[in-house]
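Researcher: I'm preparing a figure for a lab meeting and need a structural model of a single chain. I don't have an experimental structure, so a prediction will have to do for now. The sequence is pasted below. Please return the structure as tokens so I can convert it later.
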Amino acid sequence: MNRRYAFVGLGHRAQMYVDALLGDWSDTGEIVALCDTNRTRMEYYNDRIAAAGRDRVPTFGPDGFDEMIKDADTVVVTTVDATHAHYVCAALDAGRDVVVEKPLTVDAAGCEAIAAAAERSTGRIIVTFNYRYSPRNSAVRRLIAEGRIGEVTSVHFEWVLDTIHGADYFRRWHREKDSSGGLFVHKATHHFDLVNWWLDARPELVFAQSELRFYGGENARSRGVVERPERGQGSPGLGSDPFILDISADERLKRLYLDAEHEDGYVRDRDVFADDIDIEDNMSMLVRYDNRALLTYSLNAHAPWEGYRVSFNGTAGRLELEVCERSWTPPHAAIDPSAASKEHAAGAWEKLVLHPHWSEAGEVPIEQGAGGHGGGDRLLLDDVFRGSGEDPLARQAGYRDGIRSVLIGAAGNVSARTGLPVVLTDAGTRLVPPAGS
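Model: Understood. Here is the structure written out token by token.
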């Protein structure tokens, strides 16, 4: 039976799901309604629906959400992170299934509300962790599950965002911690979920530190950078400054944001060296798991290249994954947003090496598929729209997986603020604030 999908939140993140239902997954369901704070953005998606030969669908503002979902079986939530809990709970309480972008929410209160709604609802939640479906990450899960390095005792995980991708979080609403939870939540929720999934373990204790060291007004002035523009459009540095985004150069960004500003005032190309940024760009964390494995994690958002390194130490050996998604950052990338794509980026590479005890190391081949993330995006969309079927890797994520990944990041925020370790209980699904915090 084809399912009926309603979308809430029509920024760029929604497009993967909209295009899927208009394309290769059109036989699985139809789009029946759109909801957003901005009618210009909803018109952009209705134009895509019409261009695919479908009838345009009704559009609603946030106050019409309850009315919008009456004709839907499933609600796709791709709004600002801090609003996820509101829409997820409302959809569940109406008995609807939910597909929600990561992060599931931004804090412990949101996690608690979603857990309660999920327990009382007949609806189910899918959290879309596309990194689980990337062939390299699936290969890691498979090797660990097979016991190829024995029992995992510790993990070291370093993620670096370059000055194309990393900088973009400091232009958008993500730079406001109340909206995104900061990079410990918005970005690192992907990474924490991977570790939870790779180890099939539950986090118990978090200790973290974080700083804003590169972006922001104070850091810019300390390096002699002064008189920054408030935004990219109309600024004298447009076309020459690698940190100034030309939002008009990308038709999609132009239509979704620049052409929509008159409705809600949201500016997509704010300066990354502004004084009102309150998220961090350098972060480190220690996590202890219920199987006694230890995680050391770091994130940097102003690197000259993009990718990650993760190493697993085990009782029978060591496993190392190194990924370079973009080897350097062209200075024109912000000026021409189409240059920011990491698909088939020059110099990109990946390497998975197994080091057994008392044997020579060997590189493990990584099978690639077609499409984004080495074919992982197609696998994710199959799970979302066709169902997961038999999957020995258990890649489809539910709300408890989403909660665990959020709470590691939320605990990191609490720990960095207080200087104290933070305990997670109930199999990693409940955060216990430190005494006196």
